[in-house]
């Protein structure tokens, strides 16, 4: 099949997040399908941006591991303000105007709208209707509920009303809806989705990243871990984004409670909150906490193998009643990490796998107590828990399995319809 995958934030191992579109597309290419990955050339979640020729217009094509990436030049931005909105509309308007170019490049059998925000459904719908393709809406987060419940935006805000219109259109017009979140059925039905269209395909891992010997850790990270071990500390690791949803303030509050105990925390990553968190560490004298720049994804297995406990936390917000699907947790489990999970959600992979301890969110006392409890376990017990986590991922969350489930949900390649102008 010819698959057109529209994801504003799509990345790759060399560029950084988002990784899921790349991993799914790579499995489809390996299975003999052809994928156009349509993405913005500027994204706040990537470690670095693709290089485009000066003054580039329309899709700039780049082959990455057999996937045809079509980059669209968009204005840079920081944070979640007006700059991000301008970036979104620049991307969508350019893709809309490039409909004929994209169809001429490779006429799609399946068109996937997958940009976190739902407004890309209008562009994807145009492409699907022009080609008779199956239209797929992939849900990462529930917009507009996410900005409402996580950021406090009013339901009457014009942007929220626009997003709500896009979500409702997506549930009405998509042939297939793929959700990473497992507990969305009642909500989506309340917004008009025929649940026969709904399929759950969570996040996962790619096996080849976990085969062979991983590259060694960058020197500063290796030194931070070695220094902690030299003083007899149990090392708690965190690898990932540093934003409000990641609840890293709770981890630092817990670190303050653990100041005089043999525990050290090593955090690697970047994000909107990184500078503020670094200032907290300095101001509060948290000498047992090290905050370091992000490491290449290929080094993540080495980092996780070096720590004793991995932390992942969440805010206490109602949106998580629909479930969670964190990428970093799949890496934690694959690395045989014992996990301290601070969450209240509709699902809990750590509890399902039996590979760690779950404590209430936004409770420094609970996080501190949980870390003490895991640190006190015999090493053999922690190893057994880590093995259970890895077995859980291998059974349910490898990308060859997930990619096939995704395409099975799309059904057989449709017969091509005569072009219909919009």
Key phrases:
Glyco_trans_4-like_N; single chain; alpha/beta; 422 residues; Glyco_trans_1; Rossmann fold; globular; 2 domains; 16 helices; 6-stranded parallel sheet; 8-stranded mixed sheet
Which parts are unreliable, with pLDDT below 50 for 5 consecutive residues or more?
A: 414-422
CA-CA gap between termini: 24 Å
Please state the structural category.
Answer: alpha/beta
Strand content: 15-25%
Q: Strand-and-helix sequence, N→C?
A: EHEEEHHEHEHHEHEHEHEHEHEHEHEHHH
Q: What is the name of the CATH class of the largest domain?
A: Alpha Beta
Helix percentage? 40-55%
CATH fold field value of the largest domain: Rossmann fold
Per DSSP E runs of 2 or more residues, the count of β-strands stands at: 14
What is the averaged pLDDT score?
93
Task: Kindly report the spatial arrangement of strands forming the biggest sheet.
Answer: 3-4-2-1-5-6-7-8
Q: Examine the secondary-structure arrangement and name the CATH architecture of the largest domain.
A: 3-Layer(aba) Sandwich
How many DSSP helices? Answer: 16
Q: Give the CATH H-level superfamily of the largest domain.
A: Glycogen Phosphorylase B
Number of domains: 2
Radius of gyration: 22 Å
Shape: globular
Give a quick account of the main beta sheet: strands, pairing sense, barrel closure: 8 strands, mixed
Describe the structure in brief:
With about 425 residues, this protein is of the alpha/beta class.
